[in-house]
């Protein structure tokens, strides 16, 4: 046992609901569950406050990812499909979670994503079922329409910056059959266009800004603990129905350990990495894994931590001539950017990691778009590294529907120790095929007349990579996460032994416990995952309130 474990546990105040994780899903839940002034809600967040300037200026992602002030700086296990490389796995370390450091891209996904969930037996999760929950919290700058809403908390605006290079990429796309579209959020996201982003007047719009900050001082029934780790969930195993019931959590910070009792429910919203970790530490997970670490098995749930899915991005980089990129912006240019931002809230400092996107098919074998491009008028070796000194752009392409499956597993009983993260990228022939086809497609795009006139030179993976085998190896060398881990505590039907949750997000085999975050997805969505996670939280809040009436 650690020295922390030896500290005595004192009793904290009881709450109706305890939400573990003040990130993407957790803060929407806190907002919804605290609307009733008689309901007491506790939010526990292991990170700190979002009081750093780069949490709010959009281009701050360049400085936040990989920085221990903003990022837990997890790393994967060596990944065989990535040529045994271990890669960084960013997770937000502040209130607002990953929405404080992410790409800010507003993306719902495709009709097919959710209709497939429904076809798997998850009634109520088809596209027509979930669309109202996207709309419920949306505040779109274009106002209310059939497919968008206004007046909600989750602000959606159009990009505030344009680059001639981006327009050239868009034109090249049309030349190879990728049409321009104005909105990726109508159910089919095929085409190319500027991303809609979660910003408000040029500032990042995190879930803290949207759902917690506006209400926490007005509602005296919300308590927030920061820099506090949940060590374990406690269960009553002597219930009348014989099912263990989640009753309390043990929380520690630098000074003390406390027990907080939940009168109604405990909700895990710690994300696709930490929610399964906490379940395992609490005795819910694969029995052999728990026994290996000396943890009593409360409920054998083999699916906890399994089924990890993520979008692997292949970051291809091309040098160009005769086109300006952010790379060669000097100090004077940076000063002008800063001035433009201060005066008008416009310009490159408002730029999301990727301003422009493309959804298309890597080959004719796919019925709907299966790859997504993030186009950036800049290049760098990795997030947190300096920009290159030469003019270049990045065409990052990811497989939207990977068939590779990874896992998240504790490596010790220490709640402060990072779990083993193994995404198993490129572990199936289908995923390797999509990767190779994506590299070929990118070369077709860059060779189109609209870009060819700027003499693009392939910097990564390199023009010398030509054979199928070389491309397989190159995909493993340049591949990295695009930060969309999901599905590690998936919803599923009764007959699925790997389903951790039922269709109402309740943990199977126990009472009083739900997981409401990206872990719950049975299959990854076709695009950026923050807003689908908010939709899950919106539905989850409704389930909780319905199930706890009276």
From TrEMBL:
Classification via SUPFAM superfamilies: FAD-linked reductases, C-terminal domain, FAD/NAD(P)-binding domain
InterPro entries linked to this entry: FAD/NAD-bd_sf (IPR036188), GMC_OxRdtase (IPR012132), GMC_OxRdtase_N (IPR000172), GMC_OxRtase_C (IPR007867)
Coiled coil regions in record: none
Domain of life per record: Bacteria
Pfam families: GMC_oxred_C, GMC_oxred_N
Keywords for this protein: FAD, Flavoprotein
Record Gene3D superfamilies: FAD/NAD(P)-binding domain, Glucose Oxidase, domain 3
Gene Ontology molecular function: flavin adenine dinucleotide binding; oxidoreductase activity, acting on CH-OH group of donors
Chain residues that bind FAD: 94, 102-105, 230
Cofactor: FAD
Family per record: Belongs to the GMC oxidoreductase family.
Protein name from the UniProt record: Choline dehydrogenase
Organism field: Ferrovibrio terrae
Organism placement in taxonomy: Bacteria, Pseudomonadati, Pseudomonadota, Alphaproteobacteria, Rhodospirillales
């Amino acid at each position: 046992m650690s020295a922390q474990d030896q500290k005595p546990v004192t009793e904290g105040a009881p709450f109706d609901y305890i939400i573990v994780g003040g990130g993407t899903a957790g803060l929407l839940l806190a907002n919804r569950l605290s609307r009733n002034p008689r309901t007491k809600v506790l939010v526990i967040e292991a990170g700190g406050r979002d009081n750093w300037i780069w949490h709010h200026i959009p281009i701050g992602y360049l400085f936040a990812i990989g920085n221990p002030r903003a990022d837990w700086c997890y790393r994967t296990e060596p990944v065989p499909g990535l040529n045994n490389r271990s890669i960084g796995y960013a997770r937000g370390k502040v209130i607002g979670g990953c929405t404080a450091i992410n790409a800010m891209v507003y993306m719902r996904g495709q009709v097919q994503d959710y209709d497939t969930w429904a076809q798997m037996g998850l009634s109520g999760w088809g596209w027509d079922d979930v669309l109202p929950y996207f709309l419920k919290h949306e505040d779109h700058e274009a106002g209310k329409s059939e497919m968008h809403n206004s007046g909600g908390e989750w602000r959606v605006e159009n990009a505030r910056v344009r680059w001639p290079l981006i327009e050239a990429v868009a034109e090249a796309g049309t030349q190879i059959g990728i049409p321009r579209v104005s909105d990726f959020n109508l159910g089919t996201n095929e085409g190319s266009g500027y991303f809609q982003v979660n910003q408000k007047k040029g500032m990042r719009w995190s879930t803290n800004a949207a759902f917690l900050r506006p209400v926490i001082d007005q509602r005296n029934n919300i308590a927030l603990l920061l820099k506090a780790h949940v060590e374990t969930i406690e269960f009553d195993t002597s219930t009348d129905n014989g099912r263990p019931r989640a009753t309390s959590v043990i929380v520690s910070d630098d000074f003390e350990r406390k027990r907080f009792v939940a009168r109604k429910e405990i909700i895990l919203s710690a994300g696709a990495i930490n929610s399964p970790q906490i379940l395992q530490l609490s005795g819910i997970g694969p029995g052999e894994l728990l026994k290996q670490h000396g943890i009593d098995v409360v409920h054998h749930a083999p699916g906890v931590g399994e089924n990890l899915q993520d979008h692997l991005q292949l970051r291809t980089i091309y040098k160009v001539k005769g086109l300006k990129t952010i790379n060669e912006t000097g100090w004077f240019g940076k000063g002008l950017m800063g001035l433009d931002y201060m005066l008008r809230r416009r310009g490159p400092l408002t730029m999301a990691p990727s301003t422009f996107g493309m959804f298309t098919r890597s080959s004719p074998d796919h019925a709907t778009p299966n790859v997504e491009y993030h186009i950036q008028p800049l290049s760098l070796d990795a997030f947190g590294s300096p920009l290159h000194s030469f003019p270049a752009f990045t065409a990052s392409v990811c497989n939207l529907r990977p068939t590779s499956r990874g896992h998240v597993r504790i490596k010790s009983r220490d709640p402060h120790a990072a779990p083993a993260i193994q995404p198993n990228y490129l572990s199936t022939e289908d995923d390797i095929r999509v990767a190779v086809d994506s590299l070929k497609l990118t070369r077709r795009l860059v060779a189109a007349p609209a870009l060819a006139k700027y003499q693009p030179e392939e910097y990564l993976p390199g023009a010398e990579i030509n054979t199928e085998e070389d491309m397989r190896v190159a995909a493993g060398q340049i591949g990295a996460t695009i930060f969309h881990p999901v599905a590690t505590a998936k919803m599923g039907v009764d007959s699925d032994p790997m389903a951790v949750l039922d269709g109402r997000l309740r943990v199977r085999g126990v009472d009083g416990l739900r997981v409401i975050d990206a872990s719950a997805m049975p299959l990854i969505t076709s695009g950026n995952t923050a807003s689908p996670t908010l939709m899950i939280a919106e539905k989850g809040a409704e389930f909780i309130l319905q199930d706890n009436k009276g």
